[in-house]
Structures are given as structure tokens and as C-alpha cells.
Amino acid sequence: MSANSNVVVPKAFIWRRVHSLFGLMIVLYLVEHLTVNSQAALWLGSDGYGFIRLVNLIHSLPFLQVLEIVLIGIPILFHGIIGIKYALTSKNNSMGFQKSKPILSYGRNRAFSWQRITSWILVVGIVGHVVQMRFLDCPQKAVVNNEKQYLVKLNFDEGLYSLSDRLDVEIFDREKINFLYDNFNKVEKKNSWTSSDSIPYRADEEVKIAKLQGKWQEESFINVLNKYKLNQTQVVAVSKNAGTAFLLMVRNTFKSPMWAVLYTLFVIAAVFHGFNGLWTALITWGVILSYRSQKMMVNFVILLMLALGFLGLVSIWGTYFINLRS
């Protein structure tokens, strides 16, 4: 029996690797997410078509919700739980005024402190982001004439007049929705098949069933529209694809200076936390061990941090205020 056969790997070692591995997955997602979002504003005059194409591509993936849970939700959840434990037990030694412990103002000590500070910003920011953009403001789906329609509630502004025409979007206010709802001729919904036995095909029956199905879809669409609680300054935009609906949702969010400032803090915290964590992960996994390699990687990570931060801030301040205002 070898001398190493009884070596027990400490649990702390294992949890550090799990925490680091999930962090690497989140960094990859952060790069993808901010790159896609930047396409709403990066190319001036494009009406966000890059964003629309990429979002439509993502929504065409099979088992999308499963992929989001496995590749995004689980890593963020477990990385966050383990990270909160580290944040609660770690000692800050780069800022403060306690005379009982030394204050070390070295760069890596300050980075360690800011890594913990940004972790708390991200806990609040991620929860708020998911609640807002995946539940409260997320586009709803309906089917009309066997085609998917995506509905999103917006605060109206005059720029939507021309933008909706260019993006092939139909706008509904409360008055228009009420008119459709009140004047829709509800049809009797009954099964046209009277026997479970085989019956001969009839072309006229096929046409009748197709029309009935169209009525059902139209009624379902109007009911989804009618569920929106709109005030006089709000409308519902209806698009034929997910990308356009999500583009309008993003534009509507960043139209508010308050949300723009909050998301700016969120993006800066996410980019710093992610890429500072990436540098630490490379050490954890033994990729960079020498002082020289670590120094070189710090400079490279800072460049990545600045580049991705630029893309994130472009999507916040450029989507409405520059590219899609009208």
C-alpha cells in the first residue's frame, strides 16, 4: 500500500474548487450576456438588429429553460451560497481604522476587500434583475394564426411611433384593447367529432375546424392583452419574434435614469467581481503560479475587465439615449 493511500482531501479544498468552477461558468455567461446586450446600442443606426438576431438564436435552442437552469441558475445559486459564507467569515485587512489589526493597502488586499463588497452588491442586483426582467417585465407569449406573438408592456414615448414601424411592431393602448375585447364575437367551443370510430374525411369539416382554431387563438391573444393593467401612459407592444420584444423591454428599462444608474453599479460590480475572481481561479487551478505569470495575467484581466465593462455600459446608456430614442 502506498504512503498516499490514506490521504483525505479536506472538505475546504473541495468546496474552494467547486466555488471556483461555478465562478468560471458565470464569467463565461457574463461575457455572453453583456456582449449580446451591447448589440442593442453598439452599432449606431442598426435599430438593434444584432441584438434581435442573437436573442432569436438563443430562443431557438431546444430545452432552453433546462439549459438556463443547469448552466446559469445552478452555478449562480451555489457560487452565491458558498460566496456568502466566505464573505461572512473573511477578515478585511485593507480598509478600516481598528488599531488592533494591521491595515495593508497593497493592491491585492484592496482587491480582496472589493471582491467581498461587490459580492453583496451582486446578491441584491441579481435577485432584482431576475425578478424584474424574467418575471415582472418579461414578454408574454400568445399564438395568432398559428404564429407566435410576443407582448411586452412599455411606458409610451413619441419615439415608439417611428420605431414600431421600423421593427414591425403593433402598439395597443387600453382603449384599443377594450375595443377588441368588447367586440370580439365569441364562438361556441364544442367538439365536432361525434364518434370515436373511424369516419370519412370531409374537406368542409377541415375548413370549419381551422376557422374554429383561429377563433380560439384570437380569443386567447385578446385575453392576454386584456390582462395587462395599463395606465394612460402605458401601452403593449406586440412583436412576431422574441428578439424584438426583449429589445423593447431593455429600451424601456434604460429609458429611466434611475434604472440606468442602478444597472451601471450592477454591471461594474459584476465585471470586477467576475474577472478578479477569474484571476484568483487561475491560481487556484494552478494555471499561473509564478510571480511573473501572475503579474502578466493581472494586466490581461484588467484589459478584459475594461472591454467587457465598456460593452455593458454601452448597452445601458446607448440603447435608449443614443441608438433607439426615436
Features of the shown structure:
alpha+beta; single chain; 2 domains; elongated; 3 helical TM bundles of succinate and fumarate reductases
Quick structural summary:
The protein is 65% helix and 7% strand. It is α+β, with helices and mostly antiparallel strands and 326 residues long.
Architecture overview:
By secondary structure, the protein is an alpha+beta fold. The chain has two domains: 11-139 and 256-323, Up-down Bundle (3 helical TM bundles of succinate and fumarate reductases), CATH 1.20.1300.10; 140-190 and 202-250, no CATH class. 65% of the residues lie in helices and 7% in strands. It contains ten helices and four strands; from the N terminus they run H-H-H-H-E-E-H-E-H-H-E-H-H-H. The longest helix has 33 residues, at 291-323. The chain is elongated. It starts with 10 loop residues before the first helix and ends with a helix.
Overall 3D form: elongated
What order do the strands of the largest sheet run in, or round the barrel if closed?
Answer: 1-2-4-3
* Quaternary organisation of the protein chains: single chain
CATH class division of the largest domain: Mainly Alpha
Number of helices: 10
Tally of extended strands? 4
The chain-level mean pLDDT equals: 89
What's the name of the CATH homologous superfamily of the largest domain? Fumarate reductase/succinate dehydrogenase, transmembrane subunit
Q: What is the CATH architecture assignment of the largest domain?
A: Up-down Bundle
